[in-house]
Amino acid sequence: MSAAGKSGAMLEEDPDQTYENVLAEIQSFELPIEATLRSVYDDQPNAHKKFMEKLDACIRNHDKEIEKMCNFHHQGFVDAITELLKVRTDAEKLKVQVTDTNRRFQDAGKEVIVQTEDIIRCRIQQRNITTVVEKLQLCLPVLEMYSKLKEQMSAKRYYSALKTMEQLENVYFPRVSQYRFCQLMIENLPKLREDIKEVSMSDLKDFLESIRKHSDKIGETAMKQAQQQKIFSVTLQKQNNVKFGKNIYINNRSPDERNKTVLKHAFEEEDENEEEVLTVQDLVDFSPVYRCLHIYSVLGDEETFENYYRKQRKKQARLVLQPQSNMHETVDGYRRYFTQIVGFFVVEDHILHVTQGLVTRAYTDELWNMALSKIIAVLRAHSSYCTDPDLVLELKNLIVIFADTLQGYGFPVNRLFDLLFEIRDQYNETLLKKWAGVFRDIFEEDNYSPIPIVNEEEYKVIISKFPFQDSDLEKQSFPKKLPMSQSVPHIYIQVKEFIYASLKFSESLHRSSTEIDDMLRKSTNLLLTRTLSSCLLSLIRKPHIGLTELVQIIINTTHLEQACKYLEDFITNITNISQETVHTTRLYGLSTFKDARHAAEGEIYTKLNQKIDEFVQLADYDWTMSEPDGRASGYLMDLINFLRSIFQVFTHLPGKVAQTACMSACQHLSTSLMQMLLDSELKQISMGAVQQFNLDVIQCELFASSEPVPGFQGDTLQLAFIDLRQLLDLFMVWDWSTYLADYGQPASKYLRVNPNTALTLLEKMKDTSKKNNIFAQFRKNDRDKQKLIETVVKQLRSLVNGMSQHT
């Protein structure tokens, strides 16, 4: 129930008591006054008036209590005031006395005050001086260190300056940090550090530019040192080889004598170059990079420096690895390219070993692998343009020195030696092209006649150049002739020169003697089977090469073939391997020269047949003559005389070649004569012409029976004309009955006469009989002969038709 509700209930029960309670509530301040007052005004009419009355009565009661209390304490108050008034007089007297005493005291202490102030002032000054001295003693080392820092900056001793800064910051500045000048110094140090970084970076840039400019000289020096070291090592190795009994023969000098000479030259060259040998430190001042590295290490920014250095060096590496477009034209272009690369990596290797962390082995290996791929691509591209074997050889030597130099600094170079094997194939190709020209020149200058020897000295000169042995020829007296022409010893010498040239490339490739021997044999095989074989075939097919020259070429190839075993021994000797270790790679010269001989033989047969055709084309028969001239035709006698002279030259050829040429010539002559009889343009032939033709065939048979080339058995060569002989005998004897009766029998007298051939010739004679014997029908014998011819013609035609149906 709320307070207002409670008040209303009270007013209804006992109004007086209720107002008393309301006043009690107001005085107590425990209940909200708003609700109490509202109950007074809202509950009953006239309640406010009654409440005010009660309130006034309550006030009057309180006033009475207050008045009682004041009356009770009034006497005490009056007594206190009386006492105060008594003291007031004494207080005024005391004040006058104190004032007077103070005046007299002030007057007496003025001088003391003055002196005291002076003393105080002096004491303050003394204290200030002491304080200043103490502070100056504290500040002077800082100022001295800062002055030292300025001097170090001026003297460009930046690393010392950074150390001084560290001392200032860690030791001195904390002592005087409250002073303004210290704050200024502290604020200036970062700027000084930045200045040092900029100056150091500028020095580093100058250093990078310097090593870029000096890369050529650094690389040249490093490669020269590596080359000298290699020469010295090879010399010692050769000396050891001689001591252990390995055979090395150069310039016909003994191994001991040659070895002493080589060692002497090697040491003399080393002594001459000893004073000139420079190290990379002599050529380049590395102090800027050391200082810069130390400075950035002190500044705690070493990683930035490392990244910048590596980035710039990679850029320089790309520039160094970029070749000039005409580098392949001269060896100097390749040399500059290699020296720059060597110089670059020599510097990197030096930085790797004298610094910690600036360049790591992993970084250099990565850089080298990138460079190696680029180098191989560049060399593969540019070397492909080289057509001069001397330039390729010099390039190989440069690559070997380049590889040996960098290998000495710990860089892997196996891929470079693999590249050399590719270049070796190209070198061999350029050698083959060069020697193709050499061989062509030798063939052009050769006179294709046996070498005349006037005296013993000339003979020894030839024998020293070419391994020729002939006991029968040695027994002959001078002057005499060697069977081969001048081109043979020249070719043999050039093949040896080619082997020497090929050996030059194989040297220093870090390969065993067996591998070098195998490479030499393969390259020599290419020379023989490709280059020399091609030159020989080209020579053989030249139009101006006659039969005599072809014969001499066959003789030459025979001697060159015999010399192949000496070339194999020569390769074995120069590679210093024993005969037991030689593997199965052999020289293919035997097949090369055999093929050339076969080509020459075929060309002999072709040219001999062409010559025969030229003579046969000179034939001028009168096919309608009634009687023969009684002697053989002039063209045929000239042809036979030509064949006799040619076959005399063939005596120097192997027997089968001469016999084959002679048989081929006779067969071709027989075929040509037969074709002359059966020529479709020849319409008629008289018996006199046949008799004249028979005289020519008799001369051919006589020539064949005279054995122009020895070695034929019986009448083998005469069988080349058997077809003509049987055909002419058939027409000369007019033995048609025997031919027709024995046709097809193995023992037939005219076994080699073909019915078609006989029919063709008979028809030509039949037409001649008709034209020349207009009145033959009036003579009984002629009529009988004409009937016989017609009968034979019919029978021959039946034989021809039977043959065609049978086939």
What does this molecule look like?
Residues 416-764 form the Exocyst complex subunit EXOC6/Sec15 C-terminal domain. Component of the exocyst complex involved in the docking of exocytic vesicles with fusion sites on the plasma membrane. This is Exocyst complex component. This protein is mostly helical and 807 residues long. It contains 28 helices and two strands. Helices cover 76% and strands 1% of the residues. It has a two-stranded antiparallel ribbon. The termini are far apart. Mean pLDDT is 80; it is low at 1-13, 242-275 and 773-778.
Secondary-structure map:
Layout: H1 3-13, H2 15-28, H3 33-42, H4 47-154, H5 158-172, H6 180-243, H7 255-274, H8 280-283, H9 287-298, H10 302-321, H11 331-354, H12 361-383, H13 389-408, H14 414-445, E1 451-453, H15 456-465, H16 471-475, E2 480-482, H17 487-506, H18 513-540, H19 547-562, H20 564-574, H21 589-616, H22 634-649, H23 655-677, H24 687-705, H25 722-733, H26 736-742, H27 755-772, H28 780-806
Antiparallel strand pairs: 1-2
Helix pairs in contact: 1-2, 1-3, 2-3, 2-4, 4-5, 5-6, 5-9, 6-7, 6-9, 6-11, 6-13, 9-10, 10-11, 10-12, 11-13, 12-14, 13-14, 14-17, 14-18, 17-18, 17-19, 18-21, 19-21, 21-23, 22-24, 24-25, 27-28
Organism: Vicugna pacos (Alpaca)
Pfam family, one: Sec15_C
Keywords: Exocytosis, Transport
